[in-house]
Protein backbone atom coordinates (compact mmCIF):
# COMPACT_ATOMS: atom_id res chain seq x y z
CA UNK A 1 0.00 0.00 0.00
CA UNK A 2 3.04 2.27 -0.14
CA UNK A 3 2.35 5.65 -1.76
CA UNK A 4 -1.37 4.82 -2.10
CA UNK A 5 -4.02 7.04 -0.64
CA UNK A 6 -7.57 6.21 0.31
CA UNK A 7 -10.36 8.58 -0.69
CA UNK A 8 -12.89 8.50 2.17
CA UNK A 9 -14.64 11.71 1.11
CA UNK A 10 -18.41 11.26 0.75
CA UNK A 11 -18.32 7.72 2.18
CA UNK A 12 -20.65 7.25 5.13
CA UNK A 13 -18.67 5.65 7.95
CA UNK A 14 -20.47 4.37 11.03
CA UNK A 15 -18.49 4.10 14.29
CA UNK A 16 -20.21 1.87 16.87
CA UNK A 17 -18.52 1.92 20.29
CA UNK A 18 -19.98 2.24 23.81
CA UNK A 19 -17.17 4.60 24.88
CA UNK A 20 -17.92 8.21 23.84
CA UNK A 21 -14.27 9.27 24.18
CA UNK A 22 -13.08 6.48 21.85
CA UNK A 23 -15.82 7.33 19.34
CA UNK A 24 -14.58 10.94 19.25
CA UNK A 25 -10.95 9.82 18.84
CA UNK A 26 -11.84 7.48 15.95
CA UNK A 27 -14.05 10.16 14.40
CA UNK A 28 -11.10 12.58 14.55
CA UNK A 29 -8.78 10.06 12.91
CA UNK A 30 -11.26 9.40 10.10
CA UNK A 31 -11.76 13.13 9.50
CA UNK A 32 -7.97 13.49 9.43
CA UNK A 33 -7.96 10.90 6.61
CA UNK A 34 -10.44 13.07 4.67
CA UNK A 35 -13.75 11.50 5.73
CA UNK A 36 -16.55 14.05 5.89
CA UNK A 37 -19.50 11.77 6.77
CA UNK A 38 -18.97 10.01 10.09
CA UNK A 39 -21.81 8.82 12.31
CA UNK A 40 -21.45 7.57 15.87
CA UNK A 41 -23.64 5.15 17.85
CA UNK A 42 -23.17 3.62 21.29
CA UNK A 43 -25.27 0.43 21.07
CA UNK A 44 -26.69 -2.24 18.77
CA UNK A 45 -30.02 -0.43 18.81
CA UNK A 46 -28.43 2.75 17.43
CA UNK A 47 -26.47 0.70 14.90
CA UNK A 48 -29.56 -1.01 13.49
CA UNK A 49 -31.46 2.28 13.39
CA UNK A 50 -28.63 3.82 11.36
CA UNK A 51 -28.44 0.80 9.02
CA UNK A 52 -32.20 0.75 8.46
CA UNK A 53 -32.36 4.39 7.39
CA UNK A 54 -29.41 4.67 4.99
CA UNK A 55 -26.65 2.95 3.05
CA UNK A 56 -23.48 2.77 5.15
CA UNK A 57 -20.16 2.39 3.32
CA UNK A 58 -17.91 1.22 6.20
CA UNK A 59 -18.70 -0.01 9.71
CA UNK A 60 -16.20 0.16 12.57
CA UNK A 61 -17.77 -1.82 15.42
CA UNK A 62 -16.49 -2.59 18.89
CA UNK A 63 -16.29 -6.31 19.61
CA UNK A 64 -18.17 -5.73 22.91
CA UNK A 65 -20.89 -3.38 21.65
CA UNK A 66 -23.88 -3.79 23.98
CA UNK A 67 -25.98 -5.76 24.39
CA UNK A 68 -24.78 -8.79 22.35
CA UNK A 69 -21.38 -7.83 20.95
CA UNK A 70 -19.84 -7.24 17.53
CA UNK A 71 -19.65 -10.89 16.49
CA UNK A 72 -23.40 -11.42 16.79
CA UNK A 73 -24.08 -8.09 15.07
CA UNK A 74 -21.78 -9.02 12.19
CA UNK A 75 -23.50 -12.39 11.73
CA UNK A 76 -26.93 -10.71 11.84
CA UNK A 77 -25.93 -8.12 9.21
CA UNK A 78 -24.32 -10.68 6.91
CA UNK A 79 -27.13 -13.26 7.12
CA UNK A 80 -29.97 -10.87 6.30
CA UNK A 81 -30.35 -11.18 2.52
CA UNK A 82 -32.74 -8.18 2.45
CA UNK A 83 -30.22 -5.83 4.10
CA UNK A 84 -28.69 -3.38 1.61
CA UNK A 85 -25.70 -3.05 3.98
CA UNK A 86 -25.00 -6.79 3.90
CA UNK A 87 -21.78 -6.46 1.92
CA UNK A 88 -20.36 -3.30 3.52
CA UNK A 89 -16.84 -3.68 4.95
CA UNK A 90 -17.01 -4.47 8.68
CA UNK A 91 -13.96 -3.77 10.83
CA UNK A 92 -14.27 -5.18 14.34
CA UNK A 93 -12.30 -3.31 17.00
CA UNK A 94 -10.94 -5.24 19.97
CA UNK A 95 -8.25 -5.03 22.61
CA UNK A 96 -8.03 -8.84 22.39
CA UNK A 97 -6.35 -9.75 19.12
CA UNK A 98 -5.54 -13.34 19.95
CA UNK A 99 -5.70 -15.90 17.17
CA UNK A 100 -9.05 -17.25 18.43
CA UNK A 101 -10.59 -13.74 18.48
CA UNK A 102 -9.43 -13.03 14.94
CA UNK A 103 -10.74 -16.42 13.72
CA UNK A 104 -14.10 -15.85 15.41
CA UNK A 105 -14.37 -12.42 13.76
CA UNK A 106 -13.41 -13.86 10.38
CA UNK A 107 -15.95 -16.69 10.74
CA UNK A 108 -18.69 -14.20 11.70
CA UNK A 109 -18.08 -12.35 8.40
CA UNK A 110 -15.89 -9.42 9.49
CA UNK A 111 -13.42 -8.12 6.94
CA UNK A 112 -10.68 -7.47 9.47
CA UNK A 113 -9.92 -6.90 13.16
CA UNK A 114 -8.44 -3.59 14.32
CA UNK A 115 -6.44 -3.65 17.56
CA UNK A 116 -7.43 -1.25 20.35
CA UNK A 117 -6.01 1.09 21.33
CA UNK A 118 -5.41 2.03 17.73
CA UNK A 119 -3.02 4.46 16.19
CA UNK A 120 -3.93 6.55 13.15
CA UNK A 121 -1.45 4.58 11.04
CA UNK A 122 -2.88 1.25 12.25
CA UNK A 123 -6.42 2.28 11.36
CA UNK A 124 -5.32 3.71 8.00
CA UNK A 125 -3.46 0.47 7.18
CA UNK A 126 -6.55 -1.63 7.96
CA UNK A 127 -8.76 0.61 5.84
CA UNK A 128 -6.17 0.42 3.06
CA UNK A 129 -6.10 -3.36 3.28
CA UNK A 130 -9.85 -3.49 2.65
CA UNK A 131 -9.72 -0.94 -0.19
CA UNK A 132 -6.68 -2.27 -2.04
CA UNK A 133 -7.11 -6.01 -1.32
CA UNK A 134 -10.83 -6.68 -1.77
CA UNK A 135 -11.95 -10.27 -1.30
CA UNK A 136 -14.94 -11.76 -3.11
CA UNK A 137 -17.98 -12.66 -1.03
CA UNK A 138 -18.79 -16.30 -0.35
CA UNK A 139 -22.43 -17.32 -0.06
CA UNK A 140 -23.15 -20.82 1.24
CA UNK A 141 -25.51 -22.48 3.72
CA UNK A 142 -23.32 -21.77 6.77
CA UNK A 143 -21.52 -18.55 5.87
CA UNK A 144 -21.97 -15.26 4.04
CA UNK A 145 -19.11 -12.81 4.00
CA UNK A 146 -15.74 -12.00 2.49
CA UNK A 147 -13.64 -14.99 1.44
CA UNK A 148 -11.93 -16.14 4.62
CA UNK A 149 -8.77 -17.04 2.70
CA UNK A 150 -6.39 -14.08 2.57
CA UNK A 151 -4.01 -15.95 0.31
CA UNK A 152 -3.87 -19.38 -1.26
CA UNK A 153 -0.66 -21.27 -0.70
CA UNK A 154 -2.01 -24.58 -1.93
CA UNK A 155 -4.92 -26.84 -1.20
CA UNK A 156 -4.79 -29.98 0.93
CA UNK A 157 -4.24 -32.84 -1.50
CA UNK A 158 -3.83 -30.32 -4.34
CA UNK A 159 -7.59 -29.83 -4.82
CA UNK A 160 -9.75 -27.02 -3.45
CA UNK A 161 -13.27 -27.46 -2.06
CA UNK A 162 -14.99 -24.74 -4.10
CA UNK A 163 -16.29 -24.95 -7.67
CA UNK A 164 -13.97 -22.18 -8.84
CA UNK A 165 -10.82 -23.67 -7.25
CA UNK A 166 -8.37 -24.96 -9.82
CA UNK A 167 -6.09 -27.91 -9.18
CA UNK A 168 -2.54 -26.86 -8.38
CA UNK A 169 0.19 -28.91 -9.94
CA UNK A 170 3.64 -28.98 -8.44
CA UNK A 171 6.48 -29.33 -10.93
CA UNK A 172 8.80 -32.29 -10.75
CA UNK A 173 12.12 -31.78 -9.01
CA UNK A 174 14.89 -30.71 -11.35
CA UNK A 175 18.62 -30.91 -10.84
CA UNK A 176 20.57 -31.77 -7.75
CA UNK A 177 19.42 -30.46 -4.37
CA UNK A 178 21.67 -28.38 -2.13
CA UNK A 179 23.11 -30.17 0.85
CA UNK A 180 22.81 -28.66 4.33
CA UNK A 181 26.36 -27.24 4.29
CA UNK A 182 25.64 -25.34 1.05
CA UNK A 183 22.42 -23.94 2.53
CA UNK A 184 24.19 -22.88 5.74
CA UNK A 185 26.91 -21.24 3.66
CA UNK A 186 24.34 -19.19 1.72
CA UNK A 187 22.75 -17.91 4.93
CA UNK A 188 26.04 -17.12 6.63
CA UNK A 189 27.19 -15.12 3.57
CA UNK A 190 23.90 -13.20 3.55
CA UNK A 191 24.26 -12.38 7.27
CA UNK A 192 27.79 -11.16 6.67
CA UNK A 193 26.63 -8.98 3.76
CA UNK A 194 28.48 -10.98 1.10
CA UNK A 195 27.10 -12.03 -2.28
UniProtKB/TrEMBL annotation:
<keyword id="KW-0597">Phosphoprotein</keyword>
<protein>
    <submittedName>
        <fullName>Response regulator</fullName>
    </submittedName>
</protein>
<dbReference type="InterPro" id="IPR050595">
    <property type="entry name" value="Bact_response_regulator"/>
</dbReference>
<keyword id="KW-0805">Transcription regulation</keyword>
<dbReference type="GO" id="GO:0000160">
    <property type="term" value="P:phosphorelay signal transduction system"/>
</dbReference>
<feature type="domain" description="Response regulatory">
    <location>
        <begin position="12"/>
        <end position="131"/>
    </location>
</feature>
<feature type="modified residue" description="4-aspartylphosphate">
    <location>
        <position position="62"/>
    </location>
</feature>
<dbReference type="Pfam" id="PF00072">
    <property type="entry name" value="Response_reg"/>
</dbReference>
<dbReference type="InterPro" id="IPR011006">
    <property type="entry name" value="CheY-like_superfamily"/>
</dbReference>
<feature type="region of interest" description="Disordered">
    <location>
        <begin position="172"/>
        <end position="195"/>
    </location>
</feature>
<feature type="compositionally biased region" description="Polar residues">
    <location>
        <begin position="177"/>
        <end position="188"/>
    </location>
</feature>
<dbReference type="InterPro" id="IPR001789">
    <property type="entry name" value="Sig_transdc_resp-reg_receiver"/>
</dbReference>
<keyword id="KW-0804">Transcription</keyword>
